[in-house]
Specification:
The chain is an alpha+beta fold. Helix content is 23%, strand content 29%. It is built from 2 helices and 6 strands, in the order βββαβαββ. The protein has a 6-stranded mixed beta sheet, covered by helices on one side.
Length: 124
């Protein structure tokens, strides 16, 4: 098991790694929409936050020499399921067929009041 880390994504805000590589897979922790340059959420709503979460996850994968095309599974956590269509619109800009498997569901709340959090599993 190898911990992965990059300054191009927000640092972990708890006792966890940005990502772990094990047995040919990279497991990226859920990414909040925190801009690593400012430490804040981007202005706007669910679309801007989805884009930032995906950019953060992409930066972590790239630090491991992987791309979004290597992603086999994502999990999307939404603070409000009513944001599903808008999130999906931005999500579709980042992935091409064959799309990764995905789960998406609403949760009661996300850290720091985020609207979305996205985690990924990529394969070498």
């Amino acid at each position: 098991m190898k911990a992965l880390s990059t300054e191009k994504a927000p640092a972990a805000i708890g006792p966890y790694s940005q990502a772990i590589e094990a047995n040919g897979f990279v497991y990226a922790s859920g990414q909040l929409p925190i801009d690593p340059a400012t430490g804040a959420f981007p202005e706007g709503g669910i679309k801007e936050q989805t884009r930032q979460s995906l950019l953060n996850a992409q930066a972590i994968l790239r630090s491991a020499g992987l791309e979004l095309s290597d992603v086999v599974k994502t999990t999307v956590l939404l603070a409000d399921i009513a944001d599903f269509a808008a999130m999906n619109e931005v999500y579709a800009e980042f992935f091409a067929a064959p799309y990764p498997a995905r789960s998406a569901f609403a949760v009661k709340a996300l850290p720091k009041g985020a609207l979305v959090e996205i985690e990924m599993v990529a394969a070498r």
